[in-house]
Amino acid sequence: MKKLYLIPALLIAVGAVVLFTGCEDIIGDKPTNVILSAATDTSVMITWAAPATAPDKYLIYFKGVGQASYASVGEATTTTFTHNPGGATGKYFVAAKYGSDEYDSDVKSTEPIATASTSLSELNATGNSGYGWNRTSFAGTTYSMAEAANASAVDLYLTNFAAGFAATPYNIASPDMGPTDPGGVVPAGSWRVNAISDPITDPQLPLPKHTTTTYFNYIPLNAYPTYLAVYTADGYYGLIKIDGLNTGAGTVTIESRFQAVKGLRLIQH
Amino acid sequence: MKKLTIALILLAVIFIVGCQAPQDVKAEMDKQAEQIKMLETKLAEHATAFEQLKMDYEQHMVDLHKKTATPTQTKTTTPQPPTRVGR
To answer: A68 touching B, CB under 8 A?
Structure first.
């Protein structure tokens, strides 16, 4: 009689062991520290840190600008992957795959950082003439060119290379031209030596590759709106749209897209 | 024998119910992870918008406190641009 109670008890105990060891459980973890960098000026290198438990493999997902959903663009067994997006920008994440389970990393993006239209003044007009992108937020801001302290923040400025602001055409110039500008308001300083492209016809296409035949120390503005590419001294690409010429006030409007991945000239938005 | 059968059935029920629970938890976690991802994207968008608002406000304040436009000179002269060089 005693044995009859013992058998079910034993079976339940064995069952409990099976329950806690045999069931599908959460055994994996997501990749961390995903970093996007430029493999070339039009392709993206994705690197990440492996989770504590090594997965079977990693899947790399990409969602291009204007696309509705993510699609796998490749897989890897190491912690790096290079993707050629064919001129597109977009969002990436890496999934660690354990059997049929996937653990997704945080999302990183190559979409350029947009800064809305703001007023930019000619060097001798009232208002800020300098414009630069913050290297942490990658947002654009206007700066006074009359203060040497702004030298490390300015990426371009608006000038007519003359005293006063009445004469046209206006130009977009590299900040290092400021101290010798006839406008006469820019103090000496370590102004950035940047480069500006000729006008761009399609602002969605990759920006022109930086060479000394495609980028210059300044560009005259002969039409509005005008799209220009900027290549910064520290290796970033940005796109600016100049519009709204007002010679009475000596202003134009500027809006921008800045590629936060250094060296990448993809700008689709 | 009857008790043994009952015990086996009991074991099967525990096994099925026990396995189902982690599956449900995982599905719920996946759903929440997706929501967190969406919220992170929205947060980034709001942060950018906020930065822009801040910049616009600062610019507005600068303009507000400045005196009437006093261009250093307004004479119209043909500007002599510097040499344009590739770089």
So the answer is: no
Can you spell out the DSSP letters for A5-23? HHHHHHHHHHHHHHHHHHS
* Chain A CB contacts of B3 below 8 Å: 4-5, 7-8
| A-chain residues near B85 (CB < 8 A) | 216-217
For residue A54, which of A90, A96, A23 has the smallest C-alpha distance?
Answer: A96
3-state secondary structure of B61: helix
| DSSP symbol at A223 | S
| B14 to A19: CB separation less than 8 angstroms, yes or no | yes
Question: Which CATH number applies to A32-109: 3.40.640.10, 2.60.40.1730, 2.60.40.10, 3.40.50.620?
Answer: 2.60.40.10
B16-74 residue pLDDT tens:
666 566 678 888 898 999 999 999 989 988 988 898 888 888 888 877 776 555 555 55
**Which H or E run contains A37?**
strand A32-38
- Cα(A161)–Cα(A158) distance, integer angstroms: 9
**Predicted structure pTM score:** 0.72
Beta-ladder partners of A35: A47
Helix (H) or strand (E) segment spanning residue A100: none
Residue bearing tokens 């929205």: B42
Cβ distance B86 to A214 less than 8 Å, yes or no, reads yes
The structure tokens 């329950």 sit at A19
Backbone φ and ψ of A24, nearest 5°: -65, 130
Q: What is the mean pLDDT of residues B2-13?
A: 74
A214 in contact with B, Cβ within 8 Å: yes
Residue ranges of domains in chain A: 32-109, 113-258
ipTM over 0.95: no
> Are A23 and B22 in contact (CB < 8 Å)?
yes
Q: Give A186→chain B minimum CA distance, Å.
A: 13
